[in-house]
Amino acid sequence: MAGVKQARDGAVGILTLDEPASLNAMTPDLLGALATAVAEMTLGEDIRALILTGAGRGFCSGQNLKASEALGEDIAAGVMRFYWPAFKALRECRVPVVVAVNGVAAGGGFSLAMAGDIIVAARSASFIQVFSRIALVPDLGSTWLLPRLIGRQRALELMLLNEPLTAERAQEIGLVRQVVDDANLMDEALGLARRLAEGPTRALVATRALVEESEHSTFEAQFRREIELQATIRKSADAIEGRNAFVEKRKAKFTGR
Question: In what order do the strands lie in the sheet with 165-166?
């Protein structure tokens, strides 16, 4: 597929943004290909975790301004038509998503990195909001995602002052899980994704959904929602296996069902 490479490692699907000449800058074609790739890769139950990364020297340099005309005169409608499906696919993916950030994640590329579940960064990685530099506001979900990951003040600091964030600093403030040498990035991402792929997929994704819902819920409503979902999840094959393994004092063997 033009723009996105698909590969797999056992139960782990690997999606690579593949426009290295532009540092994988966003275009309607690239984001459309990403949305399609997520759907194709997770169509069957054999894939139980995803990795999203970028080819070449960068993860994603943000919007390709040369391609902005393809969005049409109504920019908001164009973005929702061409870009939102990829972000939605990642946020609502039926398996956990690990994002392996190599090099720069700028502007909308920063947003794309945050759309996954867990970020692993190469030591060369950097994150920058960039929007205030060109007198624009953050977009593609940045103002929703970033404060929830690192807090309001730190998010505003990055957005207003437009200072680049090193991989090490990103780890310090909780944006990324770990920082590794560039040569080890995919090995570390694969190791993490394999761990997730061996887990109880339905429970993991239901946990993500609960965290998402909690942002708009009261404590009492969330208290009830958790137990409602628990009542459903506990009937799954993995939940039954988990309880049996606990009683039998052995390691559970989850199947994602």
Answer: 104-106, 126-128, 165-166
Q: What is the pLDDT of residues 109-144, one digit of tens each?
A: 999 999 999 999 999 999 999 888 878 888 999 999
Residue 17, φ and ψ in degrees, nearest 5: -65, 125
Under DSSP, the state recorded for 198 is: T
Which has the closest alpha carbon to 176: 233, 116, 217?
116
**How many CA atoms are closer than 13 Å to the CA of 58, on its beta-carbon side?**
21
- Closest CA relative to residue 115, chosen from 126, 103, 101, 128: 101
Looking at the domain 4-197, which fold is it? Answer: 2-enoyl-CoA Hydratase; Chain A, domain 1 (3.90.226)
Question: Which residues touch 88 (CB under 8 Å, ≥6 apart)?
Answer: 35
